[in-house]
Give the backbone structure.
Amino acid sequence: MDAPVCTTRQGAVRGTHGAGGVAVFRGIPYAAPPFGPHRFREPRPVPAWDGVRDATAYGPTAPKGPYPPPMDRVLPDPSLPGEDCLNLNVWTPGTDGRAPVMVWLHGGAFVNGAGSLPGYDGAAFARDGVVCVTVNYRLGVEGYLSLPDAPDNRGLLDQIAALEWVRDNIAAFGGDPGRVTVFGESAGAMSIGVLLTTPAARGLFHRAILQSGAAHHTIRQATARRIAAHFAARFGVEPTAEGLATVPMDRLLAGQAELRAELATHQAPEVWGEAALNAMPFEPVSETPGLLPGPDSPVALLLGSNTEEYRLFMVPTGILGHVDERRLRAGAARHGLDPDRDLPVYREARPGAAPGDLLSAVVTDWFFRMPAIRLAEAAPRAHLYEFGRRSPACGGLMGAAHATEIPFVFDNLAVAGDSELIGTDPPQPLADAMHAAWVAFAATGDPGWAAYDVRDRTTMVFGVGDDLAKPQVVSDPRAAERALWDGVR
């Protein structure tokens, strides 16, 4: 069988055939390399090429360092060298159709991740009639450090450029540019939360799926500039694109890791501003934090969170067992709760829970669950889900933690390396149910349950009960805890 060839506006690309007739194209550039004269600038068009460009191997990843131990073991994140890092990958059921399109924005706290990670292989989506696209975008200093001589949110601008590429080229790969769903997890979902109210992104996608992230994690420019000055000072340069361009890339990446470690251990609001709570010094800049789409938004939403998100950050590191009652009370207060009034509500639902377990539940709600609910309340067409399958990893302590839903969404349970996160022998019926809901939403806008409203608060819960092939519809799960957050931002 001849290798598949598609023609984009920049030139022809040659991919490969996968199992079941799926065609795969890897490493297609959607913008010029963001280095040299293009460094710290908005993404620039890709020059056209002659002949047929090879698209059989993943392209370079955006500059990044590894996750710090022990997260590097739980979340493998390989890097591929090279400057042509603004690239994407396409899995398609056939190049002559008009299939719905799903564009994946990876997570990684805006400093890690890539569209080429093995767990993001889109073959199962293509198998089920969807054109799946995964995207690289600039990270960390290159993508999000706010500098006076460079545009803010360069990583978001990359995502918009990738969506423009999809609009202009996906028909050649058998996709329908009028049925584009952008979906992402963690930082990818938070990016979508910003894109929903970004004028330049309007019309580039018609549906959106936000997994474990919404519209509430941004920082104001004044805070971002203060962080940039703090970062540049360690190199003895001005906090400008011109100044940072003189620092070797390996030193910048090491400095990123040092900055994040400093923030994690010294969360002084006078230094870090809004970033002191979410511990992300690199994130989108917005003068209207938490801006939500209005009732006239044309984008249908599917969004939600995992029941025990924050355990990912507390179990592998050992922090969970070191939280005492004093730290629990201080943590609840820092996130806006009244410890005397509100912690008993969390305790009542978790008899015998240790302070670390309670703090994890509180921060899960503040960081992930409540932003999703607020976005669902604001959007005219939103379907809410919760992922509750408890991973047996880390001796059963991991629970329904952050990122544990991703292999089920992609139906990639056999991918090597997931056992540190989701445990061994993950249930295929759960992947069948969750993946099918995502495909249905991309195809029709209906994942299979009623839309969310403040009267019923309908939520589909995956991964609980005796039959994991049949998710459960729940009205207003943990209502008493949800109500504690009214008025807290």
Q: What stands out?
A: The chain has three domains: 5-211, 221-278, 300-484.
